[in-house]
Amino acid sequence: MNKALTPFEQSFRQFKKNRLAVAGFFIIFLLFAIALGTIIIDAATNYSFYKKYVIGQDLTQRLAGPGIKHIFGCDEMGRDLFLRILWGTKYSLFIGIGAIVVSLLVGTPFGMVAGYYGGRADNVIMRVMDVILAVPFMLLAMAIVAALGTSTVNLLIALSVSGIAKFARIARASVMTEKDNEYIEAAKAIGAGDFEILVKYILPNSFSPNLVQFSLGVGNSILLVAGLSYLGLGVQPPNPEWGAILTSAKIYMRDAWHISVFPGMFLVVAVIAFNLFGDGLRDAMDPKLKK
Amino acid sequence: MENILEIRNLRVTFHTDNGVVRALNGVDLKLRDGETLGLVGETGAGKTTLAKSVMRLISPPQGRIDAGEILFGEVDILKASQADMLSIRGNKISMIFQDPMSALNPVITVGEQIAEVIREHESLPSKEAWDKALKMLSTVGITADRAGDYPHQFSGGMKQRVVIAIALACNPTVLIADEPTTALDVTIQAQVLEMMAELKKKTDTATIIITHDLGIVAQMCESVVVLYAGEVVESGPVRDVFKKTAHPYTIGLLGAIPKIHLDEHRLHPIHGLMPDPMAPPEGCSFHERCDFADESCALNHPELRIIGDSHSVRCPKAVSR
Amino acid sequence: MTEGGAMQKGDALLDVRGLKKYFATPRGPLQAVDDVSFSILKGETLGVVGESGCGKSTLGRTILRLYEPTGGEIFFDGQDIASYDKKRLKKLRTEMQIIFQDPYSSLNPRMTVSQAIAAPLVLQGIFKKNDRLGIDARVGELMDLVGLARRFVNSYPHELDGGRRQRIGIARALSLKPKFIVCDEPVSALDVSIQAQILNLMQDLQGEFGLTYMFITHDMSVVKHISDDIMVMYMGRVVERAKPGSLFAAPLHPYTRALLSAIPIADPDVKIRKEILKGEISSPVNMGPECRFIGRCPDFTPACIDKAAEEKEVEPGHFVSCVKYDA
Q1: Where in chain A are the domains?
Q2: Which chains share 3+ C-beta pairs under 8 angstroms with A?
Q3: Which helix (H) or strand (E) covers residue B305, if one does?
Q4: How far is CA B316 from the centre of its chain?
Q5: What is the pLDDT along chain C (327 residues), one digit of tens a residue?
Q6: Closest residue on chain C to B215 (Cα)
Q7: Distance of CA C154 to CAs B151, B276, C157, Å?
Q8: On the CB side of B92, how many CA atoms lie within 13 Å of its CA?
Q9: What CATH number has the domain spanning A27-39+73-286?
Q10: How is chain C split into domains, by residue range?
C-alpha cells in the first residue's frame, strides 16, 4: 500500500485523519496570520496605526463593554481590547516558540551525547540538568530576567533554560532505548562513526518524544510568557502582551469582566491548539504506529 | 472416545482501518477426551486466534466471530453467558501462553498466584488453597520452599513451570498450550516437555499444543491439525500425517526443516509467502505456492475430505497411501 | 562436504587464540567469552552452537571488534586485528560483515530498502553520495542477488515480512564484498518455510563468492545442515569442536550429548533416549578454573573442580574439553 509515497506524504495522510489535530493546525495557522498581519500593518503605517489605536488612549471609552464599536470592549485606558489582543499575538507566539526552539536545539544534543556515551559524560551533563530542574521553573525565569534586565532576548534566555534540561532528559532516555537496537550495531559494522550514528540513525528514530515535548512546550511557554508579563517581568506595558493585559485587568475584574475573559480565552485556545497539533504530529510521524 | 471439544465451521475476522483480516475461514476441529492434539502452522496461520476463540478472548469491535460453534460438552462456548464463561475459563479450560514473563504478576509470590486461582474457582478455605498450591508446585517440579518467591527470582523455564501449575491448579478438562516452550532453551524445553508428558500420564487432561515445531508434535502428540491461511489443510493421527503426508503444504513443511537424523545437501523451501489475509486468493489458498497445482486449483475452493482412518485433507489431488 | 584432510588443503582465514571478553558487573567480571581458540578455513562455515547466555553472540561481535576484546589475539588473513586502531578498523569493515538475528530491529525503521543497502557503499567511499546512478545500479544488482524484487526498492522495513527483511540484511552485508560474514542466528526468527529459503540463499552466495561464514545458532538441526565444522559453547567456553558427521554420530562432551538428545525430531518413529539435564544455565560471573558444567553434569567427578579441562584432540579434527578424556 501507498508504496510510492514519501515518508512526509505518509505522515501528512495520517495527520489529516486526526480531526482535532487538523483543528489545532488551523488555529495555529490563524494565530500566525494574525501575528504577521499586525507586523505588516505596523511596517506599512510606520507604527502610526499602532500608536493611535493599540496604545493610544481614549478615556471616554474607559472600561466600555463589548459592543458594535468595540467587539471585545475597551480596557481601563479606553483602548480597543480586540485590537490589543490581536497585536499581542505575536509576543506570545514568537517568544513562546522561540524559547522552545532554543531549548530544543541546545538540550537535545546534550541529552543525546549523555545517553549515547554514558559514564562520565552522562554524569556531568545530567547532574547539571538536575540542578537546573531543581530550581522552580518560574523562579528561575524570574531570577534570570531580574538579573539581566527585561528585554526580549533576556526573556528568551530565561524561558529556554529550564526547557533545556527537559529536552536533554527526554533525548537521553530515547537515545538509550534506541542505541541497543541491532541496527545501531549494523551501522557500526559497516564502519559508521559515532557522529554519523547519532545523526543519521539515532536522531530520526528518537525524535518523536522530543516533538511531543516541543508542542506541549510551546503551549507551556506561551503561558509562561504571559505569566512573566503578568508579574511585570516580561513584555512591558503599554505593549499589548496578553499577560500584561491580564495584569491590568485584575483590579477591574468585578466591573469589567471582558478585560480578563477575552485575553484569557485566547491564551487557552492557543495552548490547546498547540497541544492538539503536537499529539497529531506524534501519531503521524511514527512509522510503527501506522496500520 | 468421545469428543470433549468440538469446533465447527469457525469463522473469525478482524476489522482494521485498512480492511478486513480473515483470520479463520471455517475451521473444524475435534478434541477427544484424554488426547494430545498438535495444532501446527506458521506465523499468521490462525493458531492463536483459534485458541483465543475457544477461551472467548476475541475482543470486539476489531475481532468478530462471524460463524461457527465451539461445543464444550453440551455448552456452546460462543453462546454461553458471561457468568458461565467465567466458570469455564481457567477452571474447565485452561491456557498456557508463550511468554511466561508476562503471564505472571511480578508483585505477587508464585504460591499466592496459584492459590488465588484455586480460591477463585473452588470455594476452598484459604489454608487449604495454599496447601493445594504447594502440591501443584511440587507436581511441576518446584520445591515447596520456593512458594514465597516472586516471579523475577525464577528462571524462564521455572516460570513456565509456574504458569503450567496455575493452568492445572483446578484440574481442567482441556488444556491449551500456546507455544509453551518457544521462549526456552533446548535443554530447558526438554525438561518442560518431559514434565508435561508425565503430568499428562497422571491427569489425562485433553491437551491442545499449539506450535510451529513439527518435532514437538511428532514427539508429544497423538493427532495433529495443520492450519494454513486460516483453514485446516490436513488433520489426522500423527503417524498418518507424518508418514502418509497428503497435503502439498504439509509435504512442503516437512521438506523445509533440516533433518538431524538424515543427511541432505539442500533444503526444499516452499516458494513464495502466505497469502495476504485481507485478500485471500480465489480457489485453493495454497495454489500459488503449490508444486502440484493446475488451473482447476485456482478456480475451485477444495473441501476437506477423508482419505483414511480419520485422516482428512483439503486437496482434491491427494490420495491415500 | 569435506572430510578429514581438509585442514591441510585450505588456509585459515580466521585464527582466534585465547580470546577473552569480560563485562564488568557489580558481582565481578562476567566472563562472557573465556579463553576461546579456533580457526576457520577459507570458504568454509564454522557453526557455533549453544544456549542463550553461552557467549556465542558475544564471540561473534568481539571478533568483528564491535566489542573490545579483554584479551587474546584475532588473526584475520594473517593480521592481528585485535590491535587495530579506528582508521584501520573502518577499512576492515569492508572485509568482515555481520547478519543479525532480528530482521525487525536490525534495520533502521526510517531508511528505505535502497537507503539501507546503499549506506555502506557511501560510508566506505565506494560511491560518491551524489552518484545516484552508480548507487542505484549496485543496489539493484544486490537486490537481484538476494532475491528481493526490485519493486520494494523504496519500501520501508515495516512494510515487509521477516524473510524479505532478512534479505535486506544479507544484501547490506554483501554490499562491501566481504570475505567473512558472522551470521548471528539469521534464521531463528523466521518460519520454517522461509528459513529454508534463506539458508539455501546463504549457501548459494557462499558458493558464488567463496565466502567464509561463522554461523551462530541455537538450532542444532540448522547448524548440522550448514556447517563444515561445529563448535559447541557452554558458559563462555568451548566444550567440543568437530565435523558435523562425527559430532552428531559420537558426541563426546556430556553437554553436547544432552543438547543433541534434547531436540524433538520431526518423525514419530524416531525416539531418542533423552538425557534430561538437571538445573539451568547460570551466568559465568567471577568463575574459577573449574569446569562450567559441573552443576548439571551427569558424569561429574571431584576432579572437575580442581582444574580446567584442557582441549584434547580425541580423534583427528574432533576436540573436546572434559577431564573424562584426560590421560
Answers
A1: 27-39+73-286
A2: B, C
A3: strand B305-308
A4: 27
A5: 333 333 334 689 999 999 999 999 888 899 999 999 999 999 999 999 998 889 999 999 999 999 999 999 999 999 999 989 999 999 999 999 999 988 888 999 889 999 999 999 999 999 998 999 999 999 999 999 999 999 999 988 888 888 899 999 999 999 999 999 999 999 988 888 889 999 999 999 999 999 999 999 999 989 999 999 999 999 999 999 999 999 999 999 999 999 999 988 888 888 777 788 887 777 888 888 888 898 888 888 888 887 778 889 999 999 999 988 876
A6: C266
A7: 45, 20, 10
A8: 14
A9: 1.10.3720.10
A10: 11-95+178-325, 106-177
Tell which of C152, C164, C165, C191 to mutate to test the B interface (max B CBs under 10 Å).
Answer: C191
Q: Tell me the CATH number for domain C11-95+178-325.
A: 3.40.50.300
Q: What is the pLDDT of residue C1?
A: 38
Residues of chain A contacting residue B276, judged by C-beta atoms under 8 Å apart: none
Q: Which residues of chain A have a Cβ shorter than 8 Å from any chain B Cβ?
A: 1, 291
Cβ under 8 Å to B: C residues 202-221: 203, 218, 220-221
Contacts of C265 in chain B (CB under 8 A): 215, 218-219, 260-261
Identity of the highest mean pLDDT range in B19-23, B94-98, B228-232: B228-232
Enter the ipTM.
0.85
Q: Are B90 and B170 in contact (CB under 8 A)?
A: yes
What pTM does this model have? 0.84
User: Which residues of chain A have a pLDDT value below 70?
Assistant: 1-8, 286-291
Element (H, E) at A282: helix A257-285
Does the CB of A181 have a partner CB in chain C at under 8 Å? yes
Euclidean distance between CA atoms C287 and A32, whole angstroms: 66
Sequential DSSP letters for A169-198: HHHHHHHHHHTTSHHHHHHHHTT--HHHII
Question: A279 vs chain B: nearest CA distance in angstroms?
Answer: 20
Residue C170, Cβ density class (10 Å: 0-12 exposed, 13-18 middle, ≥19 buried): buried
Using CA atoms, how far residue C15 sits from B34, C11, C58, in Å, is 56, 10, 17
Chains B, C: CB contacts within 8 A come to 122
Radius of gyration in angstroms for the set of CA atoms belonging to chain B, rounded to a whole number: 21
How far is residue A171 from each of residues A212, C22, C187, measured CA to CA in Å?
Answer: 12, 30, 34
In chain B, which residue's Cα lies nearest the Cα of C227? B265
Among chain B residues, the shortest Cα distance to C259 is held by: B187
User: Counting Cβ atoms within 10 Å, is residue C8 exposed (0-12), middle (13-18) or buried (19+)?
Assistant: exposed
Element of type H or E holding B177: strand B174-178
